[in-house]
Amino acid sequence: MGLKHYWSQARVIADPWLLRRALRGLFRAAVLRKNTLRTIHVIPTLKCQAHCTMCSVAKLHMGGAAELTLAEYADIADQATRMGALAVTFTGGEPLLVDNLEELVRTFSGRHFYVSIVTNGLAMTRDRARKLKAAGLDSVHFRLDSLDEEENDWLRGFPGQCRRVKEAIELCLDEGLTVGLCAVIFPGHIARYERMAEFCGHRGLTLSLPTLAPVGAATGERVATKEDLDQLRDLLRRHRHAKVDWAFSYFLRPRCPAGKEKIALTCYGDVLGCTLNHIGFGNVREEPLEAIWKRAGRFSPFAKNAERCLAAFDTEYQQAYLMPLALAGTSPVRFDAHPNIRPASQPGLFAAAGDKGRGRLLPRLWPRVAVILIRLAQRLGPRVVKVRGRTFSVPRQVLNPKPYLTSEFMARHLGVRPGDEVLDMGTGSGVLAIVAAETARRVVAVDINPVAVECAEANVQGNGLEKVVRVVQSDLFAALPSDARFDTILFSPPYFDGVIRSLLDHALYDPQKALATRFFLHAGSYLKPGGHVQMVYSSAAQPELVLQAASRLGWDWTAVAEKKACFETLLIYRLTPSARNEDPPVAEEQRAGMDSPASGIGG
């Protein structure tokens, strides 16, 4: 859409304070490749005189919760200032029904925010415009959806609203405010907005064009198509004063800002990705704004950097995340209560969230605490244990599968089919190899720990499966024949961050995810066509980093199962080579360099 749309935003950074924040955001994007919060849309009330057919907040509700106080808004403004935010927009509901709106405006303008309101204009008077201007209001955007009064008033659900807006435009211009219109684009009606763009061009007004999304009162309405998107882009190219919020970003390219450069805040303190995304990522009364914003940024649809509004134009996103909200009756729905947002599919989101109600310190310390508890169990725990009805002997140098829950959990979700040839990578005491042997035709069990290899061999013999299971000492695939192929590879990697100083540590630590990365570099070469990897991991150990590494190496993944366990969630993933890279090539020098005994596989 060209640099003219960036230049049209220049008035926002006329204040030197705002210019400094904008330059910081541009630097973080260009050099650090990091997001910076740019704008907050505040919903100070849900009250409204109109009954708009497309009202996006029609279902927002919070029971008997108290609305945010002026002091709480001041604290939010301070936090947002430290985060680099430069603009705030009061929307609704109808912000002019807020008695202390002038004080709210002053709270943010006094901290050098560019302050706007989006209003239906019904309560705008000259005296109110003058007071808001004196409080530091920079611009007013009037909701108007058609220049035809009858059509507009029907859409807005209030007779005379079109006429009142046209009157309010004049008095706000007289008071020195920047004025614009805000029109919700209904798919299939682009001609209506052409006329509005021409009207705004003649009057020196801006025109904001959010697109209808299936939320609130518009749930079930027709959604925008690619043709609608192309027509909108064409309109934006021809009318410099028309804008959409996804056309501008600190990364200097079109990008949906939800949860990254923009958030929405309800009058009850809930933080949403934007006013069209009614998934709550936290409440400012419970945790800092920055922590909530970072959590929202880890929501994978937001992190993918769509080049248009997700809520309006992405049908997969609408079906997966917006449509279920309609069944909830009221919103926002907290992310961990959404039916399609689970730890297995959004590990970073949940790992960042911790466990609500259990405090914040212990979840962050859990990896260290877990290692201490594991070492204690290794020292004091029983040396003979039962798993799925089978008996296993476990020496102290091998991870005990009983207190360490991953083996029992993984054993219920092996994904092994009758007749499969299976590789158990990181077998430890041999639990998964032995359970897999109940179904598989052949199992090869691998571990770098020589004590674990002896332990697994003894347990295989003790369970009478030595004809099915063969145990090999190896650092990942190094000791396997190059032509070995398997239907299923079971992968139980270590996932804590630490230094390997003992045989047991191979089962606990994977510094910088190096072992998991090496595994996915080579694993595709040892799979049969149609084969897969079944991996168990923990939400406490940043599984998203491993999944990202696997994706870069040509793997697709799906979540299979999850299990809550104290301050972590155990996660099982199924990974398959992507269609474009079913047999990743591995150079001999790469194999030699990556398969050093310095890093090992756990038990």
Explained architecture:
The strands form three sheets. This protein has an eleven-stranded mixed sheet. Helix 3 packs parallel to helix 4 (101-109). It is elongated, with a radius of gyration of 29 Å. The protein is an alpha/beta fold and 603 residues long. It contains 21 helices and 20 strands. The longest helix has 20 residues, at 361-380.
Give helix % range. 25-40%
Please describe the biggest sheet, giving its number of strands, its sense, and whether it closes into a barrel. Answer: 11 strands, mixed
Structural class: alpha/beta
Instruction: Give the amount of beta strand, in percent.
Output: 15-25%
Order of strands, widest sheet: 7-6-5-4-3-2-1-8-9-10-11
Calculate Rg over CA atoms.
29 Å
Low confidence ranges:
1-8, 352-361, 580-603
What separation lies between the terminal Cα atoms?
A: 55 Å
SS summary, helix count: 21
Gross morphology is: elongated
Mean pLDDT reading: 86
Number of E-state strands: 20
Outline:
This protein has 603 residues and is an alpha/beta fold. It has an 11-stranded mixed β-sheet with strand order 7-6-5-4-3-2-1-8-9-10-11. Strands 16-15-14-17-18-20-19 form a 7-stranded mixed β-sheet, with helices on both faces.
Descriptive tags:
603 residues, alpha/beta, 11-stranded mixed beta sheet, 7-stranded mixed beta sheet, 35% helix, elongated, disordered N terminus
